[in-house]
Amino acid sequence: MTTGNKAVPLPLGWKVIVKPKTGVTTSGGGIDISAAADAESHLCYTGEILAMGEAAFTAKTKSGINMGTWKVRPQVGDFVIHTPYAGMRIRRSGEKDENYIILMNDTDIQALIDDVDDYYSWVDAAG
Predict the structure, then answer these.
(1) Which structural domain range is residue 98 located in?
(2) The CATH number of the domain where 66 resides is what?
């Protein structure tokens, strides 16, 4: 399975691979803001589905909900919101750290969205 010119691992079972939205690492004036971008990436819970296992969104959950009967189910290419700290970050050897993908369970995906740039997560300091 490929996306662009890069191969994407084939997830098994109910696993899903998501390419997270990445932050900007340089300002408009060329200043390195990679530390801020790293912090932003930890707060960003949006991305694009690159691949899905054959059982993704078709099985029953632990609580007995049959996802196979849902009228709307995520597909490859959809933009989604996922749970914080979902899955496992992985990257291909020799790639930069910011070129990671996330291997997660289908139940970690919470919503479908039109565009990842329209949504952003944050930490409420007053909480």
Answers:
(1) 2-115
(2) 2.30.33.40
